[in-house]
Amino acid sequence: MSFDEHEEGSTKKESKSGGQASIWQYIALATIPLVLVLGNSMLVPILPVMQDKLNISRFQSSLVITLFSLTAGIIIPVSGYLSDRFTRKAVIIPSLIVYGAAGVLAGLGAVWSSYPILIAARAIQGLGAAGTAPIAMALVGDIYKGPKASKALGLIEASNGIGKVVSPILGSLLALMTWFAPFFAFPVFCLLALLAVIFMIKEPAKEKEAEPLKQYLQQIKTILKSKGHWLVPAFFAGSITLFILFGVLFYLSQILEEKPYNIEGVRKGLILAIPLLCLVITSYTTGAKIKQNGTLMRWLMNIGLILMIVSLTLATFLNGNLYVFIGLLSISGVGTGLLLPCLNTLITGSVEREQRGMITSLYNSLRFIGVAFGPPLFGWLMSISHKTLFISVASLSLLMLVLVFFFIKPKAELKQQT
């Protein structure tokens, strides 16, 4: 089915800030997803040390990552509603403050060797995370229109990827000083992002008064009823893509430390960065090129998923040579980089500003849940066999291709809602 005629609604004039896009505003927007990823992925390299220092199990150490993502995934829709009712910055700014302050508390929990304090602080960080990157996506839709919107959304996705690239390396480097150093480094990055949001981002003024909650929820229900035939598949495509991405990275991180590779520390971080770098470059390029071309978006989404299917299927049988295996995962990263910016642009531009926060939040909530379940489920599949794991994720990619091909059919030229 094709997009609804409502998608062709007239677009109002670009806001002054959108028409005169500042490089500093782009940078400020990019810091939000970047600091979000740093606060989570930077801890991955120190998990084995944490197990030893705090005398906890592998499962307990994995909760430091999983509980953060699950808490954020549950709270994101609430943050989306608040950003629609008030303003985006009114949610992002306090969220960054909570996020950074809880990072300090988590660091103190590590210093005191208190796992309960550490894990509670990570849950609080998840509450703060819910109001950062997901709301930034809605803010981009408010500030920019047309080609500038897709370019900015591509930058957001690329920034997310850059965070994934540098996080393992940065976490490993900081841990050379002391194992809990990453906990205290993160609030510094959070403070820089906070200052950038306050002073570099000019949010357009709200044009309408906030609606009563009952009427607001009714409008969300109407949107999902009229556009759910493609929005819901798009939500799940984003979630499954992140599930596969983080799961594959977890798998790669595990096998690199085992025989015959025995690769650890910064060297391992650099190898993990290769497929992520392919994702970053592809995401930014895709965002810059797609503009509002719906036909091109459809081609790129389907090509991206085909690349994922082929590379993950071949990885089932060609894992003996590390160079070939990394090459296949890099091709999968390219496929992910083709898919996500298109989904971001379609979802963000599909609704009016008054409901954009909730719709993008529902999308990001499912993405966070995909991230949360990736590592533990991949760990379980690893215990069965390598082939079972990659046949499963290749099948999931095939399912996504079916959903995207048959249900997500954007019009040739899209017009973003104001």
TrEMBL record:
It comes from Paenibacillus pectinilyticus. The lineage of its organism: Bacteria, Bacillati, Bacillota, Bacilli, Bacillales. This is MFS transporter. It is a multi-pass membrane protein. It comes from the Bacteria. Keywords: Cell membrane, Membrane, Transmembrane, Transmembrane helix, Transport. The chain crosses the membrane at residues 23-47, 59-78, 90-113, 119-140, 179-201, 230-250, 270-287, 299-318, 324-343, 364-383, 389-408. Residues 25-412 form the Major facilitator superfamily (MFS) profile domain. PROSITE patterns: MFS (PS50850). It is found in: Cell membrane. Pfam families: MFS_1. Its main location: membrane.
